[in-house]
Amino acid sequence: MKIGFIGFGEVASNLSKGLRDHGAEVCACVEGRSSRTRKNAEKIGVTLCSTNMEVAEISDVTLSAVVPSKAIEVAEEVSNHCKGIYVDMNNVSPETVNQALGLVKNGMVVDASLMGSVLKHGINTPVIASGPCAHEFAKLKTYGLNIDVVGTKTGQASALKMLRSTYTKGVSALLFETFSAAYKMGLDEELMKYLQKTECPGFKDAAASRIINSAYHAQRKSDEMEEVLKFLGKYMEPAMAHKTADFFRIIAEKVDLDEKPGDYRTIFQNLDVK
Amino acid sequence: MKIGFIGFGEVASNLSKGLRDHGAEVCACVEGRSSRTRKNAEKIGVTLCSTNMEVAEISDVTLSAVVPSKAIEVAEEVSNHCKGIYVDMNNVSPETVNQALGLVKNGMVVDASLMGSVLKHGINTPVIASGPCAHEFAKLKTYGLNIDVVGTKTGQASALKMLRSTYTKGVSALLFETFSAAYKMGLDEELMKYLQKTECPGFKDAAASRIINSAYHAQRKSDEMEEVLKFLGKYMEPAMAHKTADFFRIIAEKVDLDEKPGDYRTIFQNLDVK
């Protein structure tokens, strides 16, 4: 079984590692990416292709894992070249996913979404899938992927994902705002201590990690929130979600981090947090 | 040891029960309250006084646990009548707490805040205290109260509480918005299932309870968020917190529940959720 990745960011690299560990062949195209990305791919044992089209041509399952704004573009790029199943794993709205998958000529498509942090859960991250080839895609369970089929239509999986994002990204924005205020007052450690007492057992580490990731991935999260708004707007007038989107846009403009800091306070120290 | 309550809502009744179980004498004034409140107080074994002034006159420790908008008014009412320590336990800003406690003539005052849900944790709910008589107040640990002294100045405890509220009330608003959208799409149960997988072990019950309480106590929470904004506004331009305040104000206008529903869906069914 050969599994190909379009895009080679956090999602693709973490899943590749897990798939390799379970004996799958994995390929990807890292042209134009940093030497760090290339080295990482080589270390994992990923076969390198020179184009995304080549990836699609040789893979039994092609997984698209790019930034939301590229989802349609990459589907178009490989639309005539898919040998097997094409899976859109991007954090995009059902509308965008339907548009992207509609471009794939052989019609063997899947709408799939990660329902947790791939950084935290790796290959065990829950994945939900819908669409005509969802059950075919679910056979990748053999290679460690934690897939649940939630429906036969594309758009169903991404609808659930968008709802999940509404909540989890909102929580991240809330944590960032609350702790940036607490930090200014010198009360962030005390606050962490008391929230830890009544919220989740792992609250402290999860909160710190969400604050760091909010800043480090602000642009991507901002793009994702635009997809969330596009989706939610059809059902309601989003209020909290609107503010969450504003938040990530503002942070993306303010932040420029070369690498991920180990301590959330580094972010508040270096930023002119509004 | 006689402990008196000004106000007899959820906080006072839950703490009274715990204090009684630990052998304390408890008194309160329930004049003008419903017969259900009176019966509840009698059942717990609370001595009934005819006025708040009488409560303050006979108590070693008087605890104010009223809605935010009444915090100053009740402090003024009993200001000349406190035999012992006066403790402001209300969800109000440091500014409001200082104003209320400044009215108490004998100066034996404490700023105290509940750092968790009294419904969930009862007498074990973490309480933080600051102010000149905080250590005196902390002696109520003997009667089961879970008190930590966080400083010697009034305003310190309520600052931490306001920060906590910024986060927890924001989460409630987020849950309400997200699940009202999911409910409209028929996806609320699926969403609950996947969030439970990656969030807290007790996520499902906590989320349902937060949605229900958001609607049932919307007016009180709206008042509390106004205090939060008053406080945060001095340090930053609150964005998420502003939306949270708007949310509770809107829900308070829309909701009129006689009793607390057992299922969060009842709220979405009966409300014209925006």
UniProtKB/TrEMBL annotation, chains A, B:
Entry protein name: Putative 28,5 kDa protein in 7S RNA 5'region
One Pfam assignment: F420_oxidored
Organism of derivation: Methanobacterium congolense
SUPFAM superfamilies xrefs: 6-phosphogluconate dehydrogenase C-terminal domain-like, NAD(P)-binding Rossmann-fold domains
UniProt domain Phosphogluconate dehydrogenase NAD-binding putative C-terminal: residue ranges: 182-249
Residue ranges of the TM segments: none
Gene3D superfamilies attached to this UniProt entry: N-(1-d-carboxylethyl)-l-norvaline Dehydrogenase, domain 2, NAD(P)-binding Rossmann-like Domain
Annotated InterPro entries: 6-PGluconate_DH-like_C_sf, 6PGD_dom2, NAD(P)-bd_dom_sf, P5C_Rdtase_cat_N, Pgluconate_DH_NAD-bd_C
Residues covered by the Pyrroline-5-carboxylate reductase catalytic N-terminal domain: 2-91
